[in-house]
């Protein structure tokens, strides 16, 4: 049997995935078994099966959606020794950015060496559902941005999410009251969005550029009673990863357990995949860190986007 199982989404990157995998450099292609997904959600099952089959390494080849599903499969398998790899061939590769793997992928022909790091993982629970995540969770406005990004097929990467952000701002801007408990500290008030980052980027925006994957904590951005004007004003800062510290309506902080309650049903994504949409009526959700729970491949020269 091969040592590595590569689970890939043929639909990722607007259909580019198949072409890229057919042109793998020999250093990556040898010792690898490719297993394609056939439908949404399939990668979870394929990853679980790859772990049961005894592969030492399981790679998610696709965008953040594929990363999310493969990571969930590996974590559900209970095997702690499996190394999780990411080949960023999707249209959003936020997790790969933090691991330095988007840089590595560009120079893959040179076969640069990768290291293994044990990173924190997040777990989202709500009544009747449980999900792991590796990159980020977005609640409220960010969930609506994800809905809008799914409707746009003609853009990718940052332009896609900037466009979806503007559409969500016109169609779904709302700041209903929300109660959020960050570890022992509870706040109730108008909330536009809550971003909870294990890695550094959400929807291509480097919202928390100093987030660590190994500190046992999430870095969050709590957008409270902002106006549309605030959003427009802070969009360039979000794109550059330079949100203001100490803003009364935009709190930045760290926590290892976050509980959210809202009267209006929640829209929540985890790594860009929906945990719940408003129609499902979910009003409460808990997000917690599982410290150093997953072994992942990283490219050290560009780890944390090469910034730290
Ligand atoms: N064979 C398939 N056919 C259609 N959809 C699939 C298939 N396999 C996976 N998917 C779904 O495609 C979605 C996007 O996958 P992924 O994130 O890997 O690609 P992407 O090009 O980066 O997309 P996105 O624009 O969402 O970031 C996921 O929700 C995933 O469940």
UniProtKB/TrEMBL annotation:
Residues 1-136 form the DAGKc domain. Keywords: ATP-binding, Kinase, Nucleotide-binding, Transferase. SMART domains: DAGKc. This is Diacylglycerol kinase family lipid kinase. SUPFAM superfamilies: NAD kinase/diacylglycerol kinase-like. It comes from Gemmata algarum. InterPro entries: ATP-NAD_kinase_N, Diacylglycerol_kinase_cat_dom, Lipid_Phosphate_FormReg, NAD/diacylglycerol_kinase_sf, YegS/DAGK_C. Gene3D superfamilies: 2.60.200.40, Probable inorganic polyphosphate/atp-NAD kinase, domain 1. Pfam families: DAGK_cat, YegS_C. One of its GO terms (molecular function) is kinase activity. It comes from the Bacteria.
């Amino acid at each position: 049997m091969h040592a590595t199982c590569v689970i890939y989404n043929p639909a990722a990157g607007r259909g580019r995935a198949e072409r890229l995998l057919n042109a793998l450099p020999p250093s990556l292609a040898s010792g690898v078994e490719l297993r394609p997904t056939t439908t949404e959600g399939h990668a979870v099952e394929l990853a679980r099966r790859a772990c049961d089959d005894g592969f030492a390494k399981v790679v998610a080849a696709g965008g953040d959606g594929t990363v999310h599903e493969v990571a969930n499969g590996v974590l559900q398998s209970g095997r702690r020794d499996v190394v999780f790899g990411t080949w960023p061939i999707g249209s959003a590769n936020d997790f790969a950015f933090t691991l330095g793997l988007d840089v590595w992928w560009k120079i893959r022909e040179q076969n640069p060496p990768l290291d293994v790091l044990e990173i924190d993982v997040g777990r989202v629970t709500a009544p009747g559902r449980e999900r792991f995540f590796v990159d980020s969770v977005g609640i409220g406005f960010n969930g609506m941005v994800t809905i809008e990004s799914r409707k746009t097929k003609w853009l990718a990467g940052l332009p896609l999410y900037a466009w979806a952000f503007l559409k969500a701002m016109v169609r779904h801007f709302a700041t209903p009251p929300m109660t959020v408990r960050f570890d022992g500290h509870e706040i109730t008030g108008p909330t536009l969005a809550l971003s909870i980052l294990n890695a550094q980027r959400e929807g291509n925006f480097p919202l928390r550029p100093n987030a660590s994957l190994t500190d046992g904590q999430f870095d969050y951005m709590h957008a409270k009673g902002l106006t549309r004007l605030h959003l427009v004003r802070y969009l360039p800062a979000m794109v550059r990863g330079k949100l203001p510290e100490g803003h009364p309506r935009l709190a930045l902080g760290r926590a290892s357990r976050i509980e959210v309650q809202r009267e209006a049903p929640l829209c929540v994504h985890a790594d860009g995949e929906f945990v719940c949409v408003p129609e499902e009526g979910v009003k409460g959700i808990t997000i917690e860190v599982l410290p150093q729970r997953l072994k992942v491949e990283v490219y050290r020269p560009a780890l944390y986007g090469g910034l730290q």
